[in-house]
Amino acid sequence: RKEGLGDSSSSGIHVLICVHGFQGNQYDLRVWRHFIASEFPDVVVIMSASNEGHTFEDVSEMGRRLGDEVAGACRRGRITRVSFLAHSLGGLIVRAALAGGWLDSIRSRLHSFISLGSPHMGYSFSNN
User: Fold this and answer.
1) CB 53: neighbour CB atoms within 10 A?
2) Cβ distance 5 to 14 under 8 Å?
């Protein structure tokens, strides 16, 4: 039995929200969506599209848009756990949404936050 992300021992729905990075779109993390769907079929995967074409804007504004998108998606069904999988700038967008209070409606259901290549320490620590 697989534990963790797809653990269905608790009643309700586990939603994983994939958040793309700079100049990205909702299809950037589709390989992850397919992997999660094959390994954890009970997890509902949502590909965030609220910031497509807007990644040159303020990170706080992108966090607000993500918060609105997540709140809308989480009004449906018996969602008991919400997780985030974010790439690059997407990790900063999720953090901005959490810090700005735009995800307060799901904070008690927050299960995990996975960021891939997100510059949490800023660009100045980059080796590039």
Assistant:
1) 10
2) yes
Average pLDDT of span 94-101:
96
* Model confidence, pTM: 0.85
Nearest to residue 32, comparing CAs of 21, 22, 17?
17
Residue identified by tokens 């259901």 is 109
C-alpha 90 chain-centroid distance? 8
HSE, CB side, 13 Å, CA atoms: give it for residue 91.
13
- Residue 9: which of 54, 49, 46, 40 has the closest Cα? 40
The helix or strand, by DSSP H or E, that contains position 71, with its residue range, turns out to be helix 59-73
Kindly provide the residue ranges of all beta strands, DSSP E only, lying in the chain, ordered along the sequence: 13-19, 43-47, 79-87, 110-116
Contact yes or no for 44/16 (Cβ under 8 A): yes
